[in-house]
Recover the amino acids of this structure.
């Protein structure tokens, strides 16, 4: 139905007026995962953002379906700037590539604000696992055949990292999904699971306590938080699997609100509270523009879609 000209004019006036008064009430932040890296990044950054907006930002964990449940709730929220969400490589790049019936369209339903952070994944093994470096691990896998690897879920960035590793190393791996990083860590520490792919920030503290071993990080270079751990690319040139986190609003949120959110997020990333904590966890702050973030998401979706098709990863 075509709206009358007077209605269109009223809508055009309403958006700037709403933006001028924003924020006048608490802002809800949907986090599409349970406790873990995404939750940590979200709460660290928005605690600083709340000081500059200024506004109360209420974080709400909405886990499920690889981040799709929380992302869908954000996409369907009113475009008034009072509902935001954290998005990740899983919810906004991998899910579109592997889910047959995704309940949202990333390009249509969201307004990207900024990529907040990036961090490598890691290959971790139990303390009783024989391989102590990547060349030995690959040789063992080629000789012995199929081996199990655990991750925090089907279709996650770490699942795809394991698939990419198998493709590039020419080995066979069987994926064993757990309910989050905590389950993976418990299985590794007990020896139930021989190896796993997980976010570096999840396994590094446990490795530092001697509870498991990290054989490599999945960035192209070593991570400053753990310079003694080699990059997987040192053995498999070109290998890269980096998890990322970003801030999103529903599509049609007025541009002045997006600009203010971006300014506040970038300022938060520069604070010592955020930078110091990120550094300790091996997380890199980013702070890209909305346009750059949009292009980055499109490239990531294309890249990981190719990996998923090669590994026959598809969720119906």
């Amino acid at each position: 139905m075509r709206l009358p000209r007077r209605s269109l004019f009223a809508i055009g006036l309403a958006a700037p007026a709403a933006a001028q008064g924003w924020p006048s009430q608490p802002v809800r932040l949907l986090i599409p995962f349970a406790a873990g890296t995404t939750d940590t990044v979200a709460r660290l950054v928005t605690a600083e953002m709340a000081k500059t907006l200024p506004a109360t930002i209420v974080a709400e964990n909405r886990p499920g379906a690889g981040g799709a449940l929380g992302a869908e709730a954000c996409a369907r929220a009113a475009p008034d700037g009072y509902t935001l969400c954290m998005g990740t490589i899983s919810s906004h790049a991998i899910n579109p590539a592997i889910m047959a019936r995704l309940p949202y369209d990333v390009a249509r339903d969201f307004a990207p604000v900024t990529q907040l952070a990036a961090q490598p994944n890691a290959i971790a093994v139990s303390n009783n696992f024989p391989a102590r470096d990547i060349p030995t691990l690959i040789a063992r896998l080629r000789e012995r055949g199929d081996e199990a690897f655990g991750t925090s879920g089907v279709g996650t960035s770490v699942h795809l990292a394991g698939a990419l590793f198998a493709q590039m190393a020419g080995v066979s791996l069987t994926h064993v999904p757990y309910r989050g990083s905590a389950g993976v860590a418990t299985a590794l520490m007990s020896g139930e699971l021989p190896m796993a792919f997980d976010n570096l920030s999840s396994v590094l503290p446990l490795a530092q306590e001697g509870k498991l071993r990290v054989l490599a990080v999945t960035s192209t270079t070593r991570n400053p938080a753990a310079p003694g751990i080699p990059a997987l690319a040192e053995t498999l040139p070109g290998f890269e699997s980096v998890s990322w986190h970003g801030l999103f609003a529903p599509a049609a949120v007025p541009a002045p609100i997006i600009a203010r959110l971006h300014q506040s997020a970038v300022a938060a990333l520069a604070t010592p509270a955020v930078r110091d904590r990120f550094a300790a966890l091996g997380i890199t702050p980013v702070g890209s523009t909305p346009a750059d973030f949009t292009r980055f998401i499109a490239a990531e979706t294309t890249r990981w879609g190719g990996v998923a098709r090669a590994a026959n990863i598809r969720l119906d």
In short: The beta strands are 27-31, 57-61, 83-88, 110-125, 147-151, 173-177, 195-199, 213-217, 242-250, 284-285. Residues 1-15 have pLDDT under 50 and may be disordered.
